[in-house]
Amino acid sequence: MLKQKLQQKLLQKLSPQQIQLMKLLQVPALLLEQRIKQEMEDNPALEEGLDDYDESDIQNDDYDAMADQEGDHEGDPEEPERNPDDEFDISDYIIDDDEIPSYRLTTNNTSADDDNKDVPFASGISFQELLHSQLGMRSLNEREKLIASHIIGNIDESGYLQRDVHSLIDDLAFNHNIQSNFREVLGLIRVIQEFDPPGVCARDLQECLLVQIRRITPRTKAVERATFLLEKSFTDFTKKHYEKIRRKHGFSEEELKETIDEVLKLNPKPGSAFQDSERVSQYIVPDFIITNHNGQLELSLTSLNAPDLRINRTYAELLESIAEARGKTNPRQKEAVMFVKQKLDSARWFIDAIRQRQNTLMVTMEAILNYQREYFLTGNETTIRPMILKDIADIVQLDISTISRVANSKYVQTPYGTFLLKSFFSESLQTDAGEEVSTREVKKILQDCIENEDKSKPLTDDELATILNEKGYNIARRTVAKYREQLDIPVARLRKELV
């Protein structure tokens, strides 16, 4: 049975402009530059450069209202007659002021005598190419070279073989139609392990270190003990059970120290040197810059966050030419006009979104600057106040999600270094005196205690908790362990060193 009823619903709908602003707000400076380039490629009505006209000339508030009012100006000699069938006024998009031709503004101040200061780029062979070049120097038949080449292809950037022997045999059968066996594949793995850098093609860390130490000459007693240690007590070595190793093998303290020193000279990642040379250098581009002028803090946006964008004049001139031919337009020309109108609207919306993004970034960062003024003046991390997203959202009267988007992946350059913006947000911790301090302050004290500890007897989490409690920070051992893990600091046993 069908029934009719009235129902009220409260819905929140976001306009395309709001969605575009939210997406632009959360991207950092480098990604914003790429986003702007992509937008200019997709929309020819948008270009870089300073506006040389008033924005009000291209405003489009209500096309339909303008179309309704055009009848009042019929016969006006100063304006072209408007076609009643038009949905908008082309004159809203036409820029009236004259523009200086670009050829008059171009200069060429270079000469043949000027030095070219371009930085040259170094080039070389990759890690895989180095291994293949050494493979060509071996006396192997075509079958063995094909198997060895397949093995090299399964070596990662650190120099380790990522496939076991049985998997390699299956891969050779399916991909190359080669029927091999365990002994043949393992023999070729041993051949590749003789290549440089030492330790390459190992299947685990123990094998990698053993391959390296067996190639060391001359074979001193310390090297022999280190080889024996890696073969017989590798697990105890990785867990730093030094006393257990000394009792098990009868090493003296001096012999154990010499043995450990020989192992520490080895490279656990033999391919890392080539990996570093091949890696593209990545630089952090700050979104904000804070400078201190004799106690006066000044905040600014980087140039990537404040690009100069404008409407392409060619599109405005195109509409102007269509306006001059008013009354002679055909359906195809109307489609062209609608296309140009769409591109101009899209360009204007994008420029407005960029400007609104700049305003939101500045307002939010100014609130953070004022909230953490003591730190930005002194650089002392212990002066950082507890601050959460809601604190800044209440100050700037914006939603918490907006503040989160601003703080996400943004960097600020200060006189004391460049930091991730969200690192200034931290929870509060109450001291014995009832004062609220930032957890970042506690982490800084914890890190200082670990850096200054006796490495032969590192501080345990219980001892660290006791030290913090003596300083007035009411903190439990499990909280110390959590902060230590967040600082990427291992447990006391793994921090132990032989002195």
Tell me what the structure shows.
Helix content is 48%, strand content 6%. By secondary structure, the protein is of the alpha+beta class. Among the domains are: 133-274, no CATH class; 428-495, Arc Repressor Mutant, subunit A (Orthogonal Bundle), CATH 1.10.10. The strands form 3 sheets. The chain has a 4-stranded mixed beta sheet. A hairpin with a 2-residue loop joins strand 5 and strand 6. Residues 53-88, 94-107 and 114-122 have low confidence and may be disordered.
Q: Which percent range describes the beta-strand content?
A: 5-15%
C-alpha Rg (nearest Å): 35 Å
What helical percentage do the residues reach?
40-55%
Largest sheet: 4 strands, mixed
Order of helices and strands: HHEHHHHHHHHHHHHEEEHHHHHEEEEHHH
Structural class: alpha+beta
Let me know the average pLDDT.
79
Number of helices: 22
Unreliable residue runs:
53-88, 94-107, 114-122
Shape: extended
According to DSSP, the number of beta strands is 8
- In spatial order, strands of the major sheet run 3-2-5-6
Task: Please give the alpha-carbon distance between the first and last residues.
Answer: 88 Å
